[in-house]
Write a structure and sequence with these properties.
Layout: H1 2-31, E1 39-41, E2 53-57, E3 61-66, E4 74-80, E5 88-92, E6 100-108, E7 119-126, E8 135-140, E9 143-150, E10 158-166, E11 172-180, E12 189-194, E13 197-203, E14 215-221, E15 239-250, E16 272-276, H2 371-404
Antiparallel strand pairs: 1-15, 2-5, 3-4, 4-15, 5-14, 6-11, 6-15, 7-8, 7-14, 8-9, 9-10, 10-16, 11-12, 12-13
Helix pairs in contact: 1-2
């Protein structure tokens, strides 16, 4: 009798362990940090708590205020003081599984924006731990730039830059990025639209093909303002950018060719790369840009008064991006295969420690391409546990029947 009870306890312990491991494995993807899609935030709650993570380095700030420029409601305001040590003020979503998504948002650079010859990153997508961002939307001088980075295996990081047209201050910009994230078996693509008009595209690798998925960051990031790069206070007013109407929705892969080829260092048309890393399968080929793309589904809140729309000094004589076609130009850029931008253009790997916003560090990994394997393993363990439980119950019933007989 004692031996039967001891055996039953051992079998019960094994059964509990198998069921616990199986349930944990099957449910691991549900508990990992992941942004639910569709995702949207117009900041009307007065906070940024739906964004699980926030990164502030120095004395920067993120707050929600009345939207400027005749835009109704509220908007998120990101601020960086020129104090010699502040260089980042951002919020971020959690990771997403690999796939195709449409990212839409509106941003606003005030009239007081001071032209800066290095990059000011206002939106970026990170797709791997200890990497530079896979896709970047930045302002350099008075131009919008899109940078795309990718890497496979042990090769150096590849980069290509696209000029998306002139920056116009004191107005809201409505952006839409249709992105299919590349994997080892899926070709990537990016189509960028500004105010409903296509201003650039990229066909080819656009991530690091690691066991991590992309997440979206918005705000302000000036890599060259790091004290470690010798930056000191310049005594200029704080840098400010506003964001509103942010959304992420499932998208469809966009086949086709890029709208522009790598261009010279001083492009004159939006949609053309400003420089390219070495030739690779993901480097765009020449093609003309299209300005007939459909408008972004994200629309701003109704304006309460006509927004000011004075362009920046260098852009005042140019047509808006939606009216300018992109023209292919001559390839130019680093000659060394796999080379990355020089010191002025350098974007450090994402290794910074972030302040809490009811969330976790920006480098955290979420659901990824191992999800099917995890689910299969967890499911198999659960089935094994259930079969073991059924067998134990059948044997117990048989013993009881035998004793009664």
């Amino acid at each position: 009798m004692f031996q039967r009870h001891s055996r039953s306890r051992r079998v019960g312990a094994i059964l509990a362990a198998v069921l616990a491991v199986g349930a944990a494995s099957a449910g691991s993807t549900a508990t990992a940090a992941s942004t639910a899609v569709p995702f949207s935030d117009g900041f009307e709650s007065g906070s940024t708590t739906v964004w699980p993570r926030k990164g502030i380095d120095g004395e920067g700030a993120v707050d929600v205020v009345a939207a400027p420029g005749g835009h109704a409601g509220r908007a998120a305001r990101f601020t960086l003081p020129d104090d010699g040590r502040s260089y980042r003020s951002e919020i971020a979503t959690s990771r997403l599984p690999y796939g195709s998504y449409r990212y839409t948002f509106s941003n606003y650079l005030p009239q007081e924006w001071i032209s800066y010859e290095a990059q000011t990153i206002v939106s970026q997508w990170h797709g791997g731990t200890d990497t530079i961002p896979a896709v970047v939307l930045a302002v350099r001088a008075d131009r919008w730039l899109m940078l795309v980075h990718w890497k496979t295996g042990s090769e150096p990081v590849n980069e290509v830059r696209y000029d998306l047209g002139p920056v116009r201050l004191g107005r809201w910009n409505q952006w839409a990025f249709d992105i299919t994230w590349s994997t080892a078996t899926t070709p990537g693509s990016i189509t960028a639209r500004l105010d409903g008009a296509q201003v650039g595209s990229h066909l080819g690798p656009n991530s690091y093909h690691q066991d991590t998925a992309p997440y979206h960051k918005i705000g302000l990031y000036r890599p060259n303002w790091k004290a470690s790069k010798g930056n000191v206070s310049g005594g200029t007013p704080p840098v400010v950018v506003y964001y509103d109407d942010v959304s992420i929705t499932p998208g469809l892969p966009v086949p086709g060719r890029p709208t522009a080829a790598p261009s010279s260092a001083a492009p004159t048309a939006p949609g053309a790369p400003t420089s390219a890393a070495p030739a690779s399968p993901g480097t765009p080929s020449a093609a003309a840009a299209s300005s007939t793309a459909p408008a972004s589904p994200a629309s701003p809140k109704p304006a309460t008064s006509p927004p000011t729309a004075r362009p920046s000094a260098s852009a005042s004589a140019q047509e808006p991006p939606s009216a300018q076609p992109s023209a292919p130009t001559t390839a130019s850029g680093p000659a060394v295969p796999g080379s990355t931008p020089g010191p002025v253009e350098d974007i450090p790997a994402e290794t910074d420690t972030d302040t809490d916003n009811d969330g976790r560090p920006l480098a955290e990994t979420g659901p990824s391409d191992r999800t099917p394997l995890v689910l299969a393993t967890g499911g198999a363990l659960l089935v094994a546990g259930l079969l073991l439980a059924y067998r134990l119950r059948t044997r117990t019933a048989a013993r009881r029947t035998h004793r009664k007989a």
